[in-house]
Amino acid sequence: MDDAVDNHATLVREQPDGSDDHQELLPGTVLNGRFIIEHLLGRGGMGAVYRARDQRKEEAGDRHPWVALKVLSRRFRDDARMAVALQREARKAQELAHPNIATVYDFDRDGDVVYLTMAELDGQPLDQLIAANPSGLSRAQALPIISGLCQGLAYAHARGIIHADFKPANIFVTQSGEVRILDFGIARAVPVIHDGSMPDSVNPAGETHFYAGDLSALTPSYAALETFAGEESYPADDVYALAIVCYQVLTGRHPFDSMPAPEAARRRLRPRPVRGLRRHEWRSIKRGLAFERNGRPRDAAAFLRAFKGTSRLQVAAGIAVAAGLLVLGWEGYKEWDHRSRLAPAIAFDQLAQEKRRQIEHLLDESIVLRYENDRTTALARYREAYALHPRNRWVTDEMEEVLQEMSAAVLDLPTDTVAIRELLAQVEQVMATDAFLASREELLELRQALRRALD
Questions:
Q1: Which residues, in sequence order, are CB contacts of 40 under 8 Å at separation 6+?
Q2: Which end of the chain is flanked by fewer CB atoms within 10 Å, N or C?
Q3: Annotated binding-site members for ATP
Q4: Which CA distances in Å does 114 have to 16, 27, 76, 352?
């Protein structure tokens, strides 16, 4: 261990600004006698991300021994409370198994270097992609990114986990165009400010700002108004940052010129509409940018539903399909829900790489299908993914979200009473055949919505 620490000490280069917080681990640096640094992937206010080689994986014969290694800023190292809080948040992040969230393996330290190990990242941070496209990404490029960001955040929000520092620098875009969200809860592990003070200056690059004396952390140009007031964090605070990031992806610029929410609210700034968006898409982003929490969608799932929208014509066309979806979906879901109470026999990270990629591809395809309101095909893709990895929690969770989306869509049904009666008959038939299904909240809500539509 001492040799590893000494090796690390000789392979650290201070950055030109002279700051103790901005040091770079050189290629060849070894942490804990295990992780060999290869090169820097990206840097943010809370630390830097490197590509590293895991010698333990190599010893086990793994042909893909690389990991992403996030080295946290050195200002984290001197506060014992900080280490405990970070370890707690890292443990929560380990529970987030979703294709749009970077998989966290472990939290550790080597001497004065505090770091997280994550699944390998191959691509570039979103802030670099935005900088390379100053007029914004094309709609074809932007929509999958936006959908992936919403899906990842929604998954975390459903489990009571708030990001608290959502911004482009904490998002990674892989070479295949998939997104990975990093640093869940790390900023929230830092004690929040209580005096409502503003930073002396705003870094237009969107770096995390630390308040001297209390180790508080936030990124001023992405933090919600309530965060500056020291209020308890809610998913709607992440939605404010999410809406800003969506705006940047589409336009290449910050909706309030990187101005912190308190100042933007004081000046009563309003974002310029984004060209090329459908009305409901722009409306959802505009709502997400509301300065007051009660004006925003309550969480990322609500934001995504609003962004996708569901026209009456789409609902009417989908009613007949929905009946088949119920039979197909609930028959498979009945078995899934019982099984999913148990952990998978093999952890996802232990599956063969080709199988993992297959599952991730199916899940990514499902996201696009759901965006296009083709829930029937999306459901079929989820079932394929489940067959590849039985009892996979995020597959069953996504399945439940599809059913919830269907229930929500029914609330806006047109006045086609014949189609509604047909769908209601299908629902009641399914509920009558199985007592377990009859008790499912989503199905009960769907039946109630259909009955109300006929009143």
A1: 24, 25, 48, 49, 50
A2: C
A3: 70
A4: 22, 17, 8, 30
- What does 321-354 look like in DSSP terms, one character per residue? HHHHHHHHHHHHHHHHHHHTTSPPSS-GGGS-HH
Average pLDDT value for the chain: 76
pLDDT band, very low/low/confident/very high, at 196 (cuts 50, 70, 90): very low
Token pair recorded at residue 314? 């789409």
Binding-site members are 70
Q: What are the catalytic residues?
A: 165
Structure tokens at 189: 């592990």
What does the alpha-carbon distance between residue 154 and residue 238 come to, in Å, rounded to a whole number?
Answer: 10
Q: Which two tokens stand for residue 179?
A: 């997104």
Q: Among the listed ranges 306-310, 386-390, 409-413, which one has the minimum average pLDDT value?
A: 409-413
How far apart CA 318 and CA 225 sit, in angstroms, is 40
What is the DSSP annotation of 49-115?
EEEEEEHHHHHTT-S--EEEEEEE-GGGTT-HHHHHHHHHHHHHHHT---TTBPPEEEEEEETTEEE
Q: Which one, of 217, 51, 198, lies nearest residue 119 by Cα? A: 51
Q: Mind listing the domains of the chain with CATH numbers?
A: 2-119 (3.30.200.20), 123-308 (1.10.510.10), 312-454 (no CATH)
pLDDT band at 435; cut points 50, 70, 90: low
**Entry pTM:** 0.62
